[in-house]
Amino acid sequence: MGTPRGSSVVLRPASGAGEGGFRVVQTLRHAGESVYGGCLRALRAAGLDGLEPWAVDLAERQALLACDVPDTVGLHHLRLDPREDAVARVAAVPRAVIGFRPLTRADLPDVVRWVHEPHVARWWNDEAADLDRAEAHYGPAIDGTEPTRRWVVEINGRSVGFVQDYLIGDHPDWALLTAAPDAVGFDYAIGERSWVGHGLGTRMLWQFLRDVVRPHYPQAPSFFAAPDHRNVASLRVLDKLGFVRGLWFDEPRTDGGADTVVGCRLDVRRVFGAASAGLVTAE
Questions:
Q1: pLDDT range class, residue 19, cuts 50, 70, 90
Q2: Which terminus of the chain has fewer Cβ atoms in its 10 Å neighbourhood, N or C?
Q3: pTM over 0.85
């Protein structure tokens, strides 16, 4: 997938006045401009400085993003989106406040429960099969004695899943398998089944990569994830975030077997922009 040249940002009013109240800001990226940066520029030009667009689908020729807009911000000067399908896709994503906080030992029972949920267990290994294994695996990160950062995902103040990020070069075996030692790797799971399948996974990961990962690794050229090749839903989420699918390889399991995974990379500069330019330009 190439980087989309044009973007539509669908503006969803907080009052929930129906799809007829939605508006759109469209833009074409300037030379050297990131997808995110082009959207911010277009929003500023429309008098909407301070809004934060989130990705709905960057895998199409016309990238689709969205913003939830406070009722105090007027939108009547903007036109309706001619693409009814785009408005419907944004309207279908639940309104939610998404946050991230460091994983603690008090969260380990939830982690164990989440990895036993059928929609997670199919793709997750046995590192948190019970509390003892969860402590052994996650305890060092909680104590700050290993570099992987682990987070709990909160939606509307409720813990619903977990994510982690790490420099791939800090894990030599994984760096050899991925051939991406300078990338930042991440893994993710929404454990609460009721929040799966509504488009929030895409929004959650966009916000995580933009607000948590990118500031901590400002010089990272790419982000990297490797879902199982059969995990169609996870691969589709990465597609929508602008990741490009690459090499298939076998990831060893603790039981001696292996899972065939798909290496997916995000060009950070082209999607989020260069750190030296406030995350808004790309080379």
A1: low
A2: C
A3: yes
Q: 3-class secondary structure for the chain?
A: CCCCCEEEEEEEECCCCCHHHCEEEEEECCCCECHHHHHHHHHHHCCCCCCCCEEEECCCCEEEEEEEECCCCCCCCCCCCCCHHHHHHHHHCCCCCEEEEECCHHHHHHHHHHHCCHHHHCCCCHHHCCHHHHHHHHHHHHHCCCCCEEEEEEECCEEEEEEEEEEHHHCHHHHHHHCCCCCEEEEEEECCHHHCCCCHHHHHHHHHHHHHHHHHCCCCCEEEECCECCCHHHHHHHHHCCCEEEEEEEEECCCCCEEEEEEEEEEHHHHCCCHHHCCCECC
Q: Quick one: how far is CA 94 from the chain centroid?
A: 16
Q: Are 92 and 40 in contact (CB under 8 A)?
A: no
Structural contact between residues 124 and 137, judged by C-beta atoms closer than 8 angstroms: no
Q: Tell me, what's the pLDDT at 254?
A: 74
Mean pLDDT, residues 127-148 taken together = 92
Q: Say if CB 79 and CB 24 are below 8 A apart.
A: yes
Q: Which of 255, 178, 256, 192 is nearest to 223 (CA)?
A: 178
Quick: pLDDT tens for 237-261.
999 999 999 999 998 877 778 889 9
- Alpha-carbon distances of 204 from 6, 15, 94, 177, 210, rounded to whole Å: 23, 22, 12, 27, 10
